[in-house]
Amino acid sequence: MFSFNRFLDSTIRFVLVSVMTIAMVLSWSAIAHSQLPSLPTAASNDPHKPPSGVTRLGMYEIASVYSPLDRSLLFEIVSPTVFNRSQPPDGSLPVEVRAEEITQRLMRALARTNKAKQTPLISIAILNKDLILQLSDDQTTRWRIKTTPSRF
Questions:
Q1: Does the chain have fewer CB atoms within 10 Å around its N or its C terminus?
Q2: pLDDT tens profile 13-33
Q3: What phi and psi values does residue 62 have, to the nearest 5 degrees?
Q4: β-strand partners of 64
């Protein structure tokens, strides 16, 4: 009987020590995360930091526009910095939104070109002091893709 009580006592101690150890390891994991910068944390979703693919240089941000055909770099666009992407200022778009808009317009122009089955003439022009890409062929009017923000 004495050995059974001793065995029961040892088992209870072992279980209590194990539970306390597990509780301490789980509660201290936040401290361990703060010491390892490569682990994702809640601060990585900071709206004040530019998203991937956007380079911030002082008061300007730069994003790349890629070809819809082979994903090669066509050009880069520059826009005034939007510090808080969750609440952009009135009349301004974040540069990555503008780059995506230009890419979508290029894809629509490519689809129209494929339907026309002709090679379009692509040129760079200035319209109202803004740089534009101009696509044209013999059968259709000119398609324009504005590449700079209206207020810069």
A1: N
A2: 999 999 988 888 777 665 555
A3: -120, 135
A4: 76
Picking from 61, 70, 125, the residue whose alpha carbon sits closest to that of residue 99 is 61
| 78 neighbors 55 (Cβ within 8 angstroms) | no
- Distances, alpha carbon 121 to alpha carbons 70, 76, 116, 136, 142, in Å: 19, 21, 13, 5, 10
pLDDT > 70 fraction of the chain, expressed in percent and rounded: 73
Q: 121 or 32: whose pLDDT is higher? A: 121
Please name which of 5, 99, 108, 1 lies closest in space to residue 55, comparing C-alpha atoms.
99
* 117 phi-psi bin (left φ>0, alpha ψ -120 to 50, beta other): left
For residue 136, give the amino acid letter: S
Q: Where do we find the tokens 């534009």?
A: 132
